[in-house]
Amino acid sequence: MKASNNTNLTQANALTIDVEDYFHVEAFSSVVKRTDWGNKYPLRVEKNTHHILNILEQHNVKATFFVLGWVAEACPTLSRAIVAGGHELASHGFSHQHANKQTQETFKQDIIRSKHLLEDQSGVRINGYRAPSFSIGQKNTWAFETLYQAGFIYTSSTYPVKHDIYGTPEWPRFKHLRQEGIVEIPIPTLEVFNRNVPIGGGGYFRLYLTPQSLLYSAF
User: Fold this and answer.
1) What is the pLDDT of residues 175-191, one digit of tens each?
2) What is the pTM of this model?
3) Buried/exposed 151-177: b ≥16 CB within 10 Å, e otherwise
C-alpha cells in the first residue's frame, strides 16, 4: 500500500480472517447445540469465503486465513481455494472450543487434528494457529509449548486487553518470541490514557463506526 504522503515509501499491513460460520461464534454457544451445526443451521461460510477471496483478488491483497478444522472437513475444497489464491492457510483449531477450557491433552489432539487435515487438503505446511476467542492466557501457558511441539511456528492467540471472556492486558502488545520457542503475534490494540483499547477483530470493527464509540470503549 502506498504511503499517504506521496513518497516512495510503502507500508506493510497484515490482514487475517477467521474462517468459521455464524453459528460458531461465542455469543451463540449457550443457545446453539453443536449437533445442530450445519443441520438446523445451514452453512454460509463456504460461499462467503469465496466472496472474500474474489474481493481480495480484485484488489491484489493477500491475507492469512485461520480455518476452523470443522469447516475444512465440511467444505473440503475451501483450503485449496485459499492457497490457490496466494494466501496463507493457518489453523483455527478443529472444534472451536476455548483453549483455556480444554485439558492439555485434549488441546493437543484438537490442534494436531486440524493441522493434519489442512495440510492433507492443501498440500502446504501449516505454520500458524489462532485460538478460538483468543483463549490462551495465564491459566494455560502450556498451550505455547504444545503448539511448538506440534510443529507450529507462530500463534496469534492473545489479546492484551481486559475482557470478561479473554484478555491478557499485562502481556506484550506486539510480536514477540516466547520462551517456549514459538512466536506470538497479539491482536492489535491502541494505547489510550495508559490503557490498551481493542481495535482488532470483526466485533470491534463493527463497534468502531464513529470516533465516539472508540472513546467510549476506553473507559
Assistant:
1) 999 999 999 999 998 88
2) 0.87
3) ebebbbbbbbbeeeebbbeebebeeee
